[in-house]
Amino acid sequence: MKVNRIVALVMAVLLLMTAMSVLAEEVQAEANTASDAMKLEQVVILSRHNIRSPLATKGSVLEEITPHQWFDWTSAASELSLRGAMLETTMGQYFRLWLEDEGLFPENYRPEVGAVRFYANALQRTRATAHYFSAGLLPVVDVAVEQHVEYNTVDPVFVPVLTFMTDEYAEDVRREVAQLGGIVGMRGISAGLHGPMEMLMDVVDMEDSEIYQSGKYGNFLEDETQLLLEQGEEANLSGPIKIANSLIDSMALQYYEEPDETKAAFGHKLTLADWQYMHTIADTYSDMLFTAPLVSVNAAHPMLQELYSEINTEGRKFTFLCGHDSTIASTLAALGVEDYLLPEAIEQRTPIGVKLVIERWLDGSNEVWYNVSLVYQSVDQLRGITPLSLENPPMKYQLSFKGVKTNADGMIAGEDFMNLMRCAIDAYDALVERYGAADTVELAPAA
Known about the structure:
By secondary structure, this protein is an alpha/beta fold. It folds into 2 domains: 39-162 and 295-435, Phosphoglycerate mutase-like (Rossmann fold), CATH 3.40.50; 167-293, Phosphoglycerate mutase-like (Rossmann fold, 3-Layer(aba) Sandwich), CATH 3.40.50. Helices cover 46% and strands 12% of the residues. The N and C termini lie far apart (89 Å).
């Protein structure tokens, strides 16, 4: 009798396990069906320009602060380099393959009126980046890139200027930024960068520079950095962190361009971790100027409005907006992005040529979902000008936002994403009301 009960119990367990297995298969089948039913409806990209020459011209701090000779750049100061042009074309070609594979574009797509939009800041490097990307994306179409201000001037939609200012607001911004340094404020920020500063000084052999020895550029490890705030301008710094940011920025660009890794580091053998460590100077620089909440809500407001408008433009399939690292940094900060560090990149927040990609998908139940990610070329892909394809894609990092729920695939429900955008835009009006700004800077009208 006891044996029969054991056999019955075993049979019951087996039946339960079988039922659970069937149920799991059915759930997985439903998930696969829902996944298969997902249809890409729209892509909006906010891009940083690709590799450029350093912003500084000959005779600048870059040449004076090191005894070494810099890479012989293929473009004038601040302009897109030849490598940058090739890399951006390659990135455009990858997106063409991806959009064709997802069914958003047919092969050799010739867009209907209003289906595709390209708009860039009016500087050479941003306009050129947009043109080269378009050549890879739409090779049989001559794409017009919109420009809303005079060539080689800055469009405030793309440059995170402070569109309003009061004394109280400026005081609160300085207090907020100083908190990055803990209880000792700005001095704490500088102290936290001593290690990367010392490594950078060693790599460029700064102490062997006669100009640095003369005291023209002060003491990198002891001098104070000041935060400068002015209405209608970007937040700015004066002091060691600003100079060091220019140095590490140019060093990274040289590393992408120079085939000899040791020569690129002025005779030093550096690992990727070394480059990332030095680049924390630039990350801190960006945090001080663009990502503090009071700053980002102010500075990113025009771009947030542009993105919201594009996402909601009837008939728009694809949008490419081209600006700068500061454009992306301030926009993501205003949206409340969760902290992240990008793998296989020197610049782990906003790498050269990075794209903030907003994808709108429709599921089998006609529900809208958004996927938000950063797409960029790894250090090896940048240095090797590696052809990109569906089999050899660029890097892609999915983003999430504070207080915003995602599904199992990391996607955001349509209304939740729209609420996120609207809240970030409305925060600007709340800021103006809070500080009682009498005047705001007028932006250039859309062309």
